[in-house]
Amino acid sequence: MKVAAVQINTILGNLEKNIEKICQFTEKCIEKGATVCLFPELSLTGYYLQDITPEIAIKPDDERLSPLKKLSKYAGIIVGGIEESEEHILYNSAFFIEGGEIKHIHRKVYLPTYGMFDEARFVGAGKTFETFTVAGFKSTVLICEDCWHFSSIYLPFLKGVKLIFAQSASPGRGYRENGMFGNARVWKNMGEFYSRLTGSYFIYANRVGVEDGFIFSGNSFICDPYGNIISEAETFKEEIVIADIKPSIIRSARINLPLLRDEKPWIIEKGLKDFTEGKK
User: Fold this and answer.
1) Total count of domains within the chain
2) What DSSP letter does each residue of 41-52 carry, written as one string?
3) DSSP string spanning 147-166?
4) Of 52, 121, 125, 206, which one has the fewest beta carbons inside 10 Å?
5) Model pLDDT for residues 190-237, shown as the tens digit of each residue
6) Domain boundaries, position 106
7) What DSSP string runs through 106-126?
8) SS3 string of 188-255?
9) Cut 0.85: pTM above it
């Protein structure tokens, strides 16, 4: 099985054009033999939506998603967009589309409200970290800030996920002499750590381009379960990175470092109960 992480430049607020581009890149991924294609956070819409957030929101049955649903019969597609619930609550969501339908939706749980970010002003927060199946592999998808919180990884880890898909729209910050943004280095450190810690593949797609004065750095990558970056993209340019998913590597990593086997979640459960009850 092959997975693809695709970094693209999206057009702010133009759902149709972004879908057209995602379809073009998905077709290229299919030609390369990819089973599933991961696109960046809010790849359907652009990131700094602010007051136009309600205008660009979609529901899972939106007809404009039809081209993606048709292509998903040949490869799974994970895209990001603004989801409108039946209660008219807006969410920053990831949609996993496969076999002509949306199989899973993850709503971003942790919404940053620091520095240049103000997401909680425009969208609601998700409440769960669930798993879904991609070509027989138990998987999860996280959206940017989710990855900065232990609970996001810990709960899927306990459920035995083997593929961690991470979407991001991370603006470049702290450009360094070696030609890499500081935030890109941090993301690589995170991918290397989480893949090693969980014995899983970590597939990361970040966007590129310029929006509202911010430059998105790209540098998408894929880590194997030993924490090795086995495929990575450049800074700034639209690009596809592909890697083989090998069950034998997952098996050997988990046997050599049996952290899932030895984990004791009841300790966390008791500690959380004591914490919520105000005990030391």
Assistant:
1) 1
2) TTTTT-S--GGG
3) GGSHHHHHHHHHTT-SEEEE
4) 121
5) 999 999 999 999 999 999 999 888 889 899 999 999 999 999 999 889
6) 2-276
7) EE------STT--GGGTSBPP
8) HHHHHHHHHHHCCEEEEEECEEEECCEEEEECCEEECCCCCEEEECCECCCEEEEEECCHHHHHHHHH
9) yes
